[in-house]
Design goal:
By secondary structure, this protein is α/β, with parallel strands linked by helices. It has four helices and 20 strands. The strands form three sheets. The protein has an eight-stranded mixed β-sheet. Strands 1-4-7-10-13-16 form a six-stranded parallel β-sheet, with no helix packed on it. β19 and β20 form a beta hairpin. The radius of gyration is 20 Å and the shape is globular.
Amino acid sequence: MRRDHRPYFLKRADIAWQSWFTRKYLAPQLEHLGKGAHFIKPWFVEIFGSNITIGDYATVIATVDKRVRLTVWSGFANHGKISIGNYCLICPGVRILSSREISIGDGCMLAQGALISDSDWHGIYERDTAIGKSGSVKIGKNVWVGDGAIVGKGVEIGENSIVGAGAIVVKDVPPNVIVGGNPARIIKHLDTTKEIRSREHLFRDPHRLVHDFNIIDRELLKHNSFVGWLRSLFFPRRGD
């Protein structure tokens, strides 16, 4: 991983630019975008269709090679909806595809490359059909969907549960369990006597959180210079 050679003022400018881009180009494509939502590399977020909502203090991270795609495409009247709750984390490469309805609760985390789809997108025998069999997907609060996992049509996942990396979920998952495998099955029950903190806890004082991150950035980047940043781009050295 490359060290961040940017001076503090340049990082702040970059954050402001990404925020402007989000408001200018992404927010108008959404039915609703909550306060405090933060997009990293928003130009690599692709939105297709309408009726997509994202809640307060959500974090969406995209990269050039792993774009985030939110797609609504429906052949059903008054269907096709994606609802992402407050405090959610969407990592690079996540795809959410809806022909009916996908609901993601507050505090959910979708790891890199996760796929959530409420449709087959083609008929099993009638492969010239555009949608195929479909069924709404509901993901409860504080669910963690692991790296490369797939959540299929008609599935409901209970709150606090974890879908292991690479798992393929084709049946309902109860609350407070860990599932894994293909098809996914329960491999562990969570200890419900222990406190489970969600991402909402991280944002309990959002202004304080921003303040603390600014202090950390100032300290980490205080020795960086504009000339040094340019040197790292055009004449990188070992250890950069």
